[in-house]
Prior knowledge:
Elements: E1 10-11, E2 24-26, E3 28-29, E4 32-38, E5 41-43, H1 47-53, E6 62-68, E7 71-76, E8 88-91, H2 101-119, E9 131-132, E10 139-140, E11 147-148, E12 153-162, E13 165-171, E14 182-185, H3 192-204, E15 207-219, E16 224-234, E17 246-253, H4 266-275
Parallel strand pairs: 2-7, 12-16
Antiparallel strand pairs: 1-6, 3-4, 4-5, 4-8, 6-7, 9-10, 10-11, 12-13, 12-14, 13-17, 15-16
Amino acid sequence: xxxxxxxxxxxxxxxxxxxxxxxxxxxxxxxxxxxxxxxxxxxxxxxxxxxxxxxxxxxxxxxxxxxxxxxxxxxxxxxxxxxxxxxxxxxxxxxxxxxxxxxxxxxxxxxxxxxxxxxxxxxxxxxxxxxxxxxxxxxxxxxxxxxxxxxxxxxxxxxxxxxxxxxxxxxxxxxxxxxxxxxxxxxxxxxxxxxxxxxxxxxxxxxxxxxxxxxxxxxxxxxxxxxxxxxxxxxxxxxxxxxxxxxxxxxxxxxxxxxxxxxxxxxxxxxxxxxxxxxx
Length: 280
């Protein structure tokens, strides 16, 4: 999956230091990322290259994000669509097929933080412009002291199975064309188990039993942490598709599962372990 970058390791603690010459600079414009992709290998602008174009102010326009091993990554917050060298803006969906995995993971994680910083320029309590905190990854209001931390949306993904069959879905009105599993955001006041039961019944009208947690995954495109579960269908197996949410919903046998798209997501990993009888 996208976070599987071992032996490299992401260090996401907030330890801002001045950028190095080879630090990666993450620049976004209209929700696209500035990069260079050649033969599916992705590269981001380097700090030494940015310095030739503009004088970036560390701590204001240039924000420390994280490190992967010894490489540090920074967000350059601008709004004018800066381009230079052989870099161009690419849609975030485009980079999903690129390599190496650590740079792909960096791009997705940087996008998560970019969206959070962009959406929180002013205090939601008193309206004053917020400032970067020096000790934590946090935005602080100098007026009322309001503290704003990165938003992480909890999402469940559910593999509903019966014998050697599992339910596949396809979202309605979405640019995502690949098959998926039942999924949804955790609502206020819900446990994860309640969310799983609700989402399955809402989307396909099926009751479940024998709920089993599988694994989790950070997913920067939606600012989420995804939590995967498998559950056995209980009772009537007739699918009653929620038409405004799903374009398709159907049972598929293990031997008919074909996974011919990128293997970076928890959804694909869950499809694979079911197909290969590694879990259920």
